[in-house]
Amino acid sequence: MAKPAYKRVLLKLSGEFMASDNGFGVDPTTAEQLAQQIKLAAEIGVDVGIVIGAGNIWRGGAAVARGMDRASADYMGMLGTVINALALQDALERIGVDTRVQTAIEIRQVAEPYIRRRAIRHLEKGRVVIFGAGTGNPFFTTDTAAALRAMEIGAEILLKATKVDGIYDDDPMTNQHATRFDHLSFIQALNMGLRVMDSTALSLCMDNDLPVMVFKLAPPDSLVRAVRGEPIGTMVSRR
User: Fold this and answer.
1) In a domain, 30, yes or no
2) CA proximity to 91, closest of 28, 11, 13
3) Please, which residues bridge with residue 213 across strands?
4) Quick check: is 130 in a domain?
5) Alpha-carbon torsion (119, 40, 234, 238), positive or negative
6) Residue 29, domain member (yes or no)
7) Which range of residues forms the domain containing residue 119?
8) 1 lies in a domain?
């Protein structure tokens, strides 16, 4: 089996990867399929940290548009990410992957509080670490949480899993003539407004020279191919 190109990665997942076809809730079968991909990457010696969103449980943006306080909506979203983190932990441990969940908001009955040095030690011991509750602060997305945690744990790359095979100049779901990029600089991605990640997260990666790969989480070996360094998505880097 080919050796990985990266020793430590941060995988950013949207909450939709935990849902069934309707896009909402947590589907145990879907969660197990996701867990199998993560297991393959861990088995070739990659330290895997994960940040997961909550779009399958809570849409804070929609609630704010209907008048909800932004901070309240964001805190509810953070709690949704903890639900997804616990569900993913269960799916991973059912297939034999030692896993820890750490949360930016303390919920000691169900998960460890986020402690950077402890997270790194878990990774060194071969455990998958799932970071829940975003950054612990409202007004920051899980994209920003992923960038922050990636740098804190010393990840060599941020892998952003999506439903499409990279970054396009338009939505490939609605425009069959959309052009796919193999590589972009951070400045290009920001200036073109491609919504790879939110601008805060992308700027944080740029300032700290943390490359981002955007790739499609399918077929079932896509994550292990990504950690081997295969060009299966779009790379965003300083140059």
Assistant:
1) yes
2) 28
3) 159, 235
4) yes
5) positive
6) yes
7) 8-237
8) no
Residue that has been written with the tokens 């849902």 in this structure? 19
Q: Over the chain, what HEC string results?
A: CCCCCCCEEEEEECHHHHCCCCCCCCCHHHHHHHHHHHHHHHHCCCEEEEEECCCCCCCHHHHHHCCCCHHHHHHHHHHHHHHHHHHHHHHHHHCCCCEEEEECCCCCCCCEECCHHHHHHHHHCCCEEEEECCCCCCCCCHHHHHHHHHHHCCCCEEEEEECCCCEECCCCCCCCCCCEECEEEHHHHHHHCCCCCCHHHHHHHHHCCCCEEEEECCCCCHHHHHHCCCCCCEEEECC
- Of 52, 19, 40, which is closest to residue 141 (Cα–Cα)? 52
Neighbours of 220 (CB within 10 A): 12
Please check whether residue 38 is in contact with residue 118, taking contact to mean a CB–CB distance below 8 angstroms: no
Do 62 and 24 contact (CB within 8 A), yes or no?
Answer: no
CATH of the domain at 210: 3.40.1160.10
With DSSP H G I counted as helix, E B as strand and the rest as coil, what are the percentages for the chain, rounded to 5? 40, 20, 40
- Diameter over CA atoms, the chain: 53
Q: Which residues of the chain have pLDDT under 50?
A: none
- C-alpha span between 9 and 154 (Å, rounded): 8
CA 101 to chain centre: 14
- Tokens 């892998």, residue located: 159
d(C-alpha 162, C-alpha 176), whole Å: 18
Number of domains in the chain: 1
